[in-house]
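Project standup — Tuesday

K.O.: blocked on the structure for the chain from last sprint. Re-posting the sequence here as requested.
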Amino acid sequence: MDVRSYGYVVIQTAKLDEWRDFATNVLGMMIAPGMPDDGNLYLKMDERPFRFMIVEGDSEVLLASGFELADKACLDATCAKLDAAGIGYVAGSDDEAAAKKVLGLIKLKDPAGNGLELYYGADLDYLKFVSPTGIDEFETGFNGDMGFGHAVFPAPNLEETHAFYTDVLGFGDTDYMHFKFSEDPNDPGMGLNFMHVNNPRHHSVALYQAPDPSGCIHLMLEVKSVDEVGYCLDRVLEKEIKVTSTLGRHTNDRMLSFYMQTPSGFALEFGTGGLQVDWEGYTPTKSTLPSYWGHKFEM
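H.V.: unblocked you, prediction finished:
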């Protein structure tokens, strides 16, 4: 299995205009010039045609997360492994693949019910990224090969869902955290698994042991400088967008970031300086402190 990056997300919302303003005028993403005028909102941040696809609907939910595989042989091998594990999936049609600007894809759900799309052969359109807020570039690697960022998915059945990502899809463990929210010795707490794919980003997916109807705990975007984080925080405060966590620096991936509420209600982390790892000989860690400083979350 060779999962290369977290390529795109599909978000359903009843607040399309709010998302347009939020994504462009707060986050600094660009309305994708090479995508069709079909009523959906496509957002660009690098050499890829789009990274966020926002579709109109009657609920606020992360519909799908697209993960890039190495090639068609890898997709075929993935299908064989899913078949052997008795995990159902649906092959995307040619029209669906064309709409996502890829050569082929399959659709499935993880054991926690989170929607996934596994694809190969993504386009590079090389259309110049021009941020409405003046961001020079996001941290996505060479030709976007590190993906757009990361996500934390809800996974009440943490052990089962974690095993699916590692044993079936081939994700690698990076770090594990366990939180208790009271002094009660019988408080079972919540687990949080961080996992990487075949690129240097510290984690592309984390799983949090709690339900969430949106299918998303948070998404993350990374920029190149501390100043861009500060400028974004200024924009958030000016627009009176809810800050769900203060500025801070995480321990495990060293990300300096803050969190804000998206129009769909789930959080988005905006940061810089995330750790990039050489996975050769790497030993997964267990962290007991989430941040060196800051990151005071609103509970």
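K.O.: great, moving the ticket to review. The longest strand covers residues 3-13. The CA atoms of residues 54 and 203 lie 24 Å apart.
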